[in-house]
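Ticket #4471: complex job returned nothing on first submit. Input attached below:
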Amino acid sequence: MAAAIYSLFIINKSGGLIFYKDYGSTGRMDTNDSLRLASLWHSMHAISQQLSPTVGCSGIELLQADTFDLHCFQSLTGTKFFVVCEPGTQHMENLLKLIYELYTDYVLKNPFYEMEMPIRCELFDINLSQATQKDRVALLGR
Amino acid sequence: MIGAGKAKQYANVVEKPLSKGKQEVSLSAFALLFSELVQYNQTQVDNIAELERRLEDAGYAVGARVLELLCHRDKGNRRETRLLGILSFVHSTVWKVLFGKVADSLEKGTEHEDEYMISEKELLVNRFISVPKDMGTFNCGAFAAGIVRGVLDGAGFPAVVTAHFVPVEGQLRPRTTILIKFAEEVLRREAKLG
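Support reply: We reran it on our side without changes. The output follows.
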């Protein structure tokens, strides 16, 4: 089943990559590159909060490039979720909220998960692969 | 003075009708509490068998209390004395109060006369739990197994109760089977009763 996004990253509050998954061939990265991108995004996000002309800015939410869109969602505890997708893909904010919900359910309620460490939870993977399917994401807008 | 306000209505505490019990509690709150219970017990043990035993003991305490409460509340202070009676009590009444539904199935073991199985497609305590590969066959359902053992033991049906993952064809996730192996004396008594 085709996924609606190119890849998904989750970074902990200190900028370490705790989850990375790519779907299909576009924008694939090896382990080192994904770690680098994660910590780069963490810093850029922090800098953008300081530089922003608006008061109380919570950081970059969307980065639009020629070949991809990058949507970012930061939770209250500082964990950041971001997806890379085709330019103009709809409902990405809702998808990120849904992924956050899956994270709170299947990662945080799992007694075998250690906070701030890489996520290796079978149930999270199963539910995530369902949530990112194209036809599921299309329904998120309703 | 506990219950001083109520004393006006009911002169004697035993005349007070029994509360129906709260029908629902937050699943998230339970899941987080259960997760902490498992994590705490993990720090107290050095092998998986020990962890399983500690979870079972925690469940046993719940089971013993649940039996007392339900016999009083639902069965007019009577308890089941026959094997099938107590099993269906666990499978339906106990399960409904604890997990909000009747257990998926109750079967008799095919190989041994003294074995019964309660199966759940998705046991409530395992809803959010992914057991890491290096922990082998460990199942947090040990807690539910402990509850079952607590109920059975309290009712006079001593048994060894264990929880296992059983793979199901065409399903991504295994189901949890709670295996009940009754003590010899239970079967002997049951045979005598005819």
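Chain A is about 35% helix and 20% strand. Closing as resolved unless it happens again.
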